[in-house]
Design goal:
Number of helices: 1
Order of helices and strands: HEEEEEEEEEEEEEEEEEEEEEE
Largest sheet: 22 strands, mixed
Radius of gyration: 26 Å
């Protein structure tokens, strides 16, 4: 009887210990992995409800990915990753929920951090989370559905598509293509080509000293103002138009045409510094201001 009692007494304890172990495995800790590369790194990154930060680790020879779970459980997500040569693929998506799903209002979603060599080709996509990229050089394709975008100290060819969230682009060198649906857009850099479109949001654009546009460029806002600052020595052919808004150009301009008839909107065409590559600026509902720096 004593042995039987000992066995029955230990069973709950053993079950409790197993439950603790299972809970520790289910809860887990933060996830991280390093992928060695020998040539130019390339990364394809896709997340659902998670913020993403990509930054350079300089002359390192590895891509390092980490996930900080914060207020969420690893078991709530599907994490898929693999490496093929110098290419790393990482995908983190929340598992589908059956029935009613409750979330705490102040809960924090996971954060994904990626360290890469400075030379990088990147395709990053987030569904619901912010995206930050800094310190890399290469081809960057960035997509967000609902979250802010912050791009800083990068060079190469940047292509950005954002649905809902503010965009900040600072100290970018090279070409930029950006399409956004809803949110303030702030752009500053030394560009060789520029294509900007905002459906609903103001555009604040600064072309830094040393900018040399070598391809026809365009800045367009469907519902919002455009503020553009240019180097005073930049040579351009300007074509500015608004459907419903004013035009104010504070730089000396050799006029080629001007139309201020209210029924047809406003249009201004002319040459800066004897002219050069065409730069077209258009707003459907908003004013345009062009100034020097």
């Amino acid at each position: 009887m004593r042995s039987v009692r000992l066995v029955t007494t230990c069973l709950p304890a053993l079950a409790l210990m197993a439950g603790v172990c299972a809970a520790a495995q289910a809860g887990g800790g933060d996830w991280q992995k390093s992928y060695p590369v020998s040539g130019k790194a390339s990364v394809t990154l896709s997340t659902g409800d998670a913020s993403v930060e990509v930054h350079s680790c300089g002359d390192c020879h590895a891509v390092r990915v980490g996930v900080e779970w914060r207020d969420r459980k690893p078991g709530d997500f599907n994490l898929n990753e693999f490496q093929s040569g110098d290419h790393v693929n990482f995908d983190l998506k929340e598992k589908p929920h059956l029935g009613i799903h409750f979330s705490i209002g102040n809960s924090r979603e996971p954060r994904v951090t990626v360290e890469t060599p400075s030379a990088l080709d990147l395709e990053a996509r987030t569904e619901d989370g912010g995206l930050k990229v800094s310190g890399v050089q290469g081809s960057l394709q960035l997509h967000t559905s609902d979250g802010s975008v912050d791009v800083e100290d990068v060079g190469g060819a940047v292509r950005l598509t954002a649905s809902d969230g503010s965009i900040k682009i600072h100290n970018v060198t090279g070409t930029l293509e950006s399409r956004s649906s809803d949110g303030q857009v702030t752009v500053e850099g030394k560009f060789t080509g520029l294509q900007l479109h905002s459906s609903d949001g103001n555009l604040d654009v600064t072309l830094a000293d040393g900018t040399q546009l070598n391809t026809a460029s365009r800045i367009e806002s469907s519902d919002g103002t455009v503020k553009l600052r240019l180097p005073r020595s930049l040579a351009l052919d300007l074509d500015v138009s608004t459907s419903d808004g004013g035009i104010n150009c504070e730089l000396p301009l050799t006029m080629e045409g001007y139309n201020s008839a209210h029924s047809s909107g406003h249009n201004l065409r002319g040459h800066l510094n004897a002219g050069g590559v065409p730069l077209t600026i258009h707003t459907s509902d908003g004013s345009v201001t062009i100034s020097g720096q």
